[in-house]
């Protein structure tokens, strides 16, 4: 059997969602590890006054592409930005671009989606379902198409506890839903959304389930495979350990923890945190396309790209490593020392939310107002609470995913491909991964310099001393009086609190 790089040799690839988190990692890895791929056509929309070509140029100038730039300085010539707004009719492609894609594309990777959990049903259907349908229609006209890879989510059927690598019946016929959305006004759609999504927590998981059905039904004549990642996190190894560039999903909460803003989360200690590194997802996707391209399986291959079944990691451990790592390598200008606690009990969580989030935020805003500054803390906390509410369902429940197809795929790889396209999560060492992840949020999301680490540590030490001082005053008014009156008492107290510092 040909190796993965050999399979991609001379191939024209179409990629949607290339400007997104997963899409850009896939683009980089494909070009770097399959250097003989002919071209990658990326569908990009105009955004914030930038043309698709400009957006592509800006994207490939980011750090993620540094390694590729070193190894293949001419790599840019292989990336062709095609203007496309996926929510428009026929993906808003020009006739010329459409003809070009129909003539030359061999492999499609469909990554684009709205991943917002609180998207309106209309918008989520438009992008996650209708655009997928439109892309399938285009794919059917492609003369040399070998594989269509659809990126779904492991939570598409989160209303089930045990999820196999099969496509389940959809919650509703997508055609009927699309037809109904045409005549309903937005108010009515929003009113019936909770009833429609039923036992799913949001429109995202609901529409991703519908998209799988659309892919299965409308792409019946195509060679299709579906990848279902769970919660995609920073990279494990490639192109750099801990690479991440956004606040989506857990990363935003990790940063809030590092800044000392996030103090309490509602989660179950023992619930599995099914994090999967982005490079694992990308390697599985590239390998799955290779497998389908070479073997042309008769049925749609579904891959549950998860970690919980083989190398489980729990939310209790996530919190432990967050506190540990952000104390060891603090973010700059943390507001408080990182110290997240976890409560599964609703009332207890509400109590700690009031005490450790809302009260300090109100006090800080009062101080800001009194000192003539603009208050912002309560606004930040409100946003944080909204984000936490959206993920609570996923931090409080656990699922079992079958991963037989993923294991089969791994066994098909040659020893060399196993190394280059590693997705064996049994080798993942969570403590090390979390250390790199926390460092990645600092380096790549917040763009903080490593040279600022000593100052950040000093700042944390100061915060800790302030807290000790505050506690001392609260606990022992006599001692506080003595410290206030006597220089010697002050020195002794300072010695006690600083000498026991920094035990990370
Ligand atoms: N991230 C996760 O934890 C996770 C977990 C499981 C599955 N997945 C799946 O993985 C895939 C990629 O997710 P991601 O995290 O990379 O998402 P992301 O960072 O939000 O990227 C979404 C991509 O879709 C593009 N897109 C959105 N609306 C578009 C439109 N109207 N026209 C053209 N392009 C549009 C975005 O382009 P712009 O830059 O123009 O906005 C962006 O490139 C999705 O299918 C998602 O369901 C993700």
Count the domains: 2
β content, as a range?
Answer: 5-15%
C-alpha geometry: globular
- Through-space gap between termini: 50 Å
Kindly report the oligomeric state of this protein.
Answer: single chain
Rg calculated over all Cα atoms: 25 Å
Keywords: Lipid biosynthesis, Lipid metabolism, Membrane, NADP, Oxidoreductase, Peroxisome, Transmembrane, Transmembrane helix
Function: Catalyzes the reduction of fatty acyl-CoA to fatty alcohols.
GO biological process, one term: lipid biosynthetic process
Membrane topology: Single-pass membrane protein
Folded structure, characterized:
The protein is α/β, with parallel strands linked by helices and 504 residues long. The chain folds into 2 domains: 306 residues, NAD(P)-binding Rossmann-like Domain (Rossmann fold), CATH 3.40.50; 53 residues, no CATH class. Helix content is 52%, strand content 10%. It has 20 helices and 13 strands. Strand 4, helix 6 and strand 5 form a beta-alpha-beta unit. Helix 6 packs parallel to helix 9 and helix 19 packs across helix 20. 43% of the residues are buried. The site of NADP nicotinamide-adenine-dinucleotide phosphate has 26 residues, from helix 2 and strand 8.
Any chance you could write out the topology, listing elements then pairs?
Elements: H1 4-8, E1 12-16, H2 21-33, E2 39-44, H3 52-60, H4 66-71, E3 79-83, H5 95-104, E4 107-110, H6 121-141, E5 147-151, E6 162-163, H7 174-183, H8 186-197, H9 203-218, E7 224-229, E8 231-233, H10 250-258, E9 264-266, E10 275-277, H11 278-295, E11 301-305, H12 315-328, E12 341-343, H13 346-370, H14 377-396, E13 400-401, H15 404-412, H16 415-420, H17 430-445, H18 453-475, H19 477-485, H20 487-499
Parallel strand pairs: 1-2, 1-4, 2-3, 4-5, 5-7, 6-13, 7-11, 8-10, 9-12
Helix pairs in contact: 2-11, 6-9, 12-17, 18-19, 19-20
The structure holds NADP nicotinamide-adenine-dinucleotide phosphate.
